Amino acid sequence: MLSCGWYLPAFPWIAFVVNVATNVILLRTRLCTSIVRSLAGSFVLGCVAFIMASVVCGSALPATERAATVAAAFLTYASASYVFFHLVHIPEASVRIRILQELAARGPLSEPEILQFYDAAKILDIRLGRLTRSGQLTYEDGRYYTGRRRMLYVAKLFRLAKRVMLGAGA
């Protein structure tokens, strides 16, 4: 019987690396120009890698442990993939999601009606207020300055991740 004890904790992460690498290749080579399609395709390919590893190593487990171990490993893979999806996609999707939710709740709306609930100037004021209250920004003499730099570092990390995924022009 094949011994896969060392491999079991690793195979959701190996599948995740397949997922991320596939997404990078699809987007960088322009084989896929849609972010959502590349994320879905790379997730499916990661699932294929996961299933292959599960078949090989799952057969080495006692039947009583097999289902629970494979389920826990798949949840790990799916959770990591979910975080990756949002890392890449949510900055682009947040505006669309808000508009679609409002249209679903209110029905068809004209552009001036949409601007009533999605007023960019109002949203900017709210965000600047939050950043100032949290100390991320300071306001002096009519100008904003960076305050605490923690969120700036997080933003730089997200920008780097997006450049790695989508290329320098993203």
Outline the secondary-structure elements:
Blueprint (H helix, E strand, L loop, with lengths): L10 H18 L6 H24 L4 H44 L4 H7 L2 H14 L3 E4 L2 E4 L3 H17 L4
Antiparallel strand pairs: 1-2
Helix pairs in contact: 1-2, 1-3, 2-3
Q: Main beta sheet, described?
A: 2 strands, antiparallel
Strand percentage, roughly?
Answer: under 5%
**Topology pattern, helix = H, strand = E:** HHHHHEEH
Number of strands: 2
The spatial strand order of the largest sheet comes to 1-2
Radius of gyration: 22 Å
| Share of helical residues | over 70%
Tally of domains: 2
Low-pLDDT segments: none
What is the structural class? mainly alpha
Oligomer: single chain
Q: Can you count the helices?
A: 6
Mean pLDDT: 82
Q: What general outline do the C-alpha atoms trace?
A: elongated
Please tag this protein with its features:
two-stranded antiparallel sheet; 2 domains; 2 strands; 6 helices; elongated; 170 residues; mainly alpha; 73% helix
Could you walk me through the main structural features you see in this protein, from its secondary elements to its overall organization?
This protein is mainly alpha-helical. The chain folds into two domains: 104 residues, no CATH class; 52 residues, no CATH class. It is built from six helices and two strands. Strands 1-2 form a two-stranded antiparallel ribbon. Helix 2 packs antiparallel against helix 3. It is elongated, with a radius of gyration of 22 Å. The relative contact order is 0.10.
